[in-house]
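Need tokens for this chain, all 426 residues.
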Amino acid sequence: MARTEQLATEKNLLETLERVERNKSAYDALYINIEKIKPQKRHPLFIKLLAKLFDDVVGTAEGNLYILSNGDFVILGKNISQNIIEGVLKKLQIGLMNDPILLSHNGADLISLYEFPADFDIFKQTIMSLMARLETFYIDVKKQPIDASQVDGIIEHLNNINIAEIVKHQSVIRINGANDFKVLFQEFFVAVKDLSAQYDASIDLVANKWIFMYLSQILDKKTILSFMLSTIKNLPSTIALNLNLSSVFSGEFANLTTNFLRNDQKVIVEVQLVDVFNNLSLYFEAKNALQQKGYDILIDGLTPQSIKMVNAHNLCPNMIKIFWDPMMEFDEEDEKLKNFINDFGADNIVLAKCKDLQAIRWGIKYGIRNFQGPYMDMLEVATIKKDCPHGKECSSEECLKRKRLIAGTYREECKDKNSLEKLLGF
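Here are the structure tokens for all 426 residues:
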């Protein structure tokens, strides 16, 4: 995103400070450091909800509330008394219940009072330093959308590289109880960002819907062929492939399922919801073809909003994947979501993009037992490193990177690939 579109609040605050400087003694600033709070509590929508709690406090202070680009709050006002500070602390405790920062520090270290005129220059410098730090995260040059003239070059690039070196796999883990969890299946895919980095990071491969759809169909075939190049010896009993619907009928897919996979191996084809809606007749054709072979179809990428558009009884997928969003924990009264999970069957649902224990707790509360995401990745890596004789020689991040690859030099650097390929199970 261009820098001119960012830091607008900070610039507005600095302009206000220039006006306030003429009468500094009439104002104070209260800085509320939300950036210290754990990441899932800094979701943009939650920040807006939290800001609403301060409406009456801002009114009492005869001031304005500024939500900075990093999620921090500033209350600039004329009447910031000790009572107002205590009121702000109570609002934080309401809005951030169960956060370990508040439990251990009572939230007081999240609040800083700058009393003008004495602290005016310090506060102004604090905002300017914050702007300088945040600017390093914004890119001046926007990615250029892909155009038709570049397609042949990308295809040629795909033909020249070892696609197996950018194919990754990630486990879906089933939790049955305390210390009772196992790999349910592993999903194999190519991340667009990895392909973009391989070709030209300045080009946005998904900007043109139709070109990307065409490229993704070619990429599907390359991904399927990559299994022949994989150095993984211990493939799971169930593998999932993220494919376009049309790829189910490709020769490459038929060859994989007929000549490469073992008879006891099962396939799950993951398809995007938008792909389903774009061609319902093809979806049902693919679903029937897969199920006749004993395979499953999974609709990927659902959200609480899109769930309301899906008629699971009509589409009849074997499984669905819901993307976790921290805001979901504030939708406990969403009866439609509860009813959907109950009707479809929680055992047939994967909660994906789980970054922390909060996501797992939410899923279990709704009866979901199948999870995927960074939190589960680190659980798997911790198990590998615990049992690996060389586990202390590499970091968790290095181990995870090697584990997710199916081939390539970096994976080959692992000193115990038997441990690397161990399927989690207790």
